[in-house]
Amino acid sequence: MPKTKSTASAAIKKSSKSVKKIGEKNKPLKKNKTVIVDIIADEEFNSSATDFSFPDLPPKNIETYSPDASAGSDLPDEQPEIDQQKRFFSDLVADMKNKSDQVDSSSNSEVNSRKVRKSLGLYRRLVVKFVILVLVLAALVTYFSFSKLTIIITPQGETIKDSLLLKVSGQLATTTPGENDPREAVVGSMQLVETQVEKTYPASGEDFLGQEIVGQVKIINHYSKSQSLIATTRLLSPDNKLFRIKEAVNVPAGGEVEVDIYADKPTADLAIGPTTFTIPGLWLGLQAEIFAQNDAPFVFQQKTVKYIKETDLQRASDEASNLLLKQAAEQVASGDQGRYYLYTLAAPLSLEINARAEAQQENFTAKASGQVAVVSFSKEEAARTVASRLNFLVPDDKELIGFDKESLVYSLENFDIESGVATVKVSFSGVMALKQDSEIIDRRQLINLNEEQIDQYLQDLPGIKNYELKFSPSFIKKAPNLLDRIQVKINKL
Q1: CATH, domain 206-304, list 3.30.420, 2.40.30, 1.25.40, 3.30.160
Q2: Residue 374 CA to chain centroid, in angstroms?
Q3: pLDDT of amino acid 403
Q4: Distance CA 152, CA 335 (A)
Q5: What is the DSSP string of 27-78?
Q6: C-alpha closest to that of 97 among 51, 46, 43
Q7: From its phi and psi, is residue 221 left (phi > 0), alpha (psi between -120 and 50) or beta?
Q8: Which of 60, 92, 169, 343 could make an S-S bridge to 325, C-beta 3.0–4.6 Å?
Q9: Is the pTM of this model over 0.90?
Q10: Is the distance from CB of 170 to CB of 154 less than 8 angstroms?
Q11: pLDDT reported for residue 37
Q12: Cα–Cα distance between 86 and 167 in angstroms, integer?
């Protein structure tokens, strides 16, 4: 028994020492001093438990320690010390429990606060992401729903030229089996017209002979007797300029006679205006009664002589044919504006000219006669034939937008008087442009292209005069990525 008491007392003292060490835990330790604490635990310490207990100690509400019967009652001296240690450990356990509860409470409060803040941040981020996603979806829906590109094209008119042959006869010709006739049949007529013309032509040849003064004067006679004047009679102006008359004249008493004048030495200063001339060859008493006057100024000019050139005769010969054709047109013309007439000589013409080359003549006369073949046909029928050929020449993606039937040019190629058939060549032209429904633009090539890329694509396409790009919305300068949102419109010229 004494051994047992000693053992228990030693254990209590050791525990007391250990508690003291625990209580002194917050005190600063001395340097280079090691403290070794031995704690003997009967059971494993459970940190998660809400109640801290020591199995080898009595409950807190027990004031006295009662050892078991086997220990005996021979320890009265150590009873107060045991009660003091019990209270100490009881208070320590309660204090530790309170601190643990406070720590747990503050920890839980902080954790809950952090959880709340984390949840609010998470919700805020989710809301922001949702709003952004909605805006993106709205932008995509708007783009695909309202994005549109309209291309308005003004086509370039293209001129097409060609010619065809018309077979003009009294009735529509039927095609003979095996016959390959490139001519288009047109109903028309043919006739021969006898023509004759005469025309005077001026000579174009000219030789320079010198200079001369040209003019006329009136010889006035106030005397009671007539006065004869010979050619070369002198006339003297008030400033002593001398002229002569070209022909002899007889001036009756009280009358007057006109006569041409000339100058012995023509100079430009002799071209004088209207004035009165004296006749120095007359008796001095008659000079006041018989005198000369000019109403128009004299003219200083080159003195030339005309002659016929070879080219004058050739011009007359060439023009004779046209004169005969013109004469035939005047004879045939019936006022029918719906028919077209062509004229050509049916045989070589007959030409007579009353002059020869180098002959000194002011002019000459040419006479021509001959037969003219006249071919006529309906303008409207010929125009329909030409229009059909033009429409045949126009490609499928284009249309004929301009054709003036008055601009057709006809020429008579050949004719046969006996059969009454003539071949007429007609030259024509028209203007074609793109159809409004033509697929000149491959819309698939425009998907997702920007404005500059679309410009480059359209500028390389033929047949486009100008174009206009209309983006919708206007601030989106890019073609939609859906084919049906790209439209092409072609203006009609």
Answers
A1: 2.40.30
A2: 50
A3: 87
A4: 49
A5: SPPPTT---------SS---TT-SS---TTS--TT--S----GGG-S--GGG
A6: 51
A7: beta
A8: 343
A9: no
A10: no
A11: 52
A12: 146
Q: Which residue matches tokens 């249309």?
A: 399
Token representation of residue 239: 């400033």
Question: CATH 2.40.30 occupies which residues in the chain?
Answer: 206-304
Residue 101's pLDDT is what? Answer: 62
Distance separating alpha carbons of residues 134 and 140, to the nearest angstrom = 10
Tokens encoding 403: 């054709």
374/191 Cα distance (integer angstroms): 5
What's the confidence (pLDDT) of residue 109?
A: 67
Rounded average pLDDT per 10-residue block, the chain, 493 residues: 41 41 44 52 45 46 43 48 72 72 62 69 81 82 74 88 90 55 89 91 87 93 93 94 94 94 92 94 90 94 87 91 90 76 89 89 92 91 91 87 88 88 93 83 88 89 87 85 86 77
Looking at residue 89, what is its pLDDT?
Answer: 74
Q: Are 290 and 279 in contact (CB under 8 A)?
A: yes
Q: Say if CB 258 and CB 239 are below 8 A apart.
A: no
The C-alpha atoms of residue 71 and residue 5 are separated, in whole angstroms, by: 7
With a CB cutoff of 8 Å and minimum separation 6, the contacts of 231 are 244, 245, 246, 247, 248
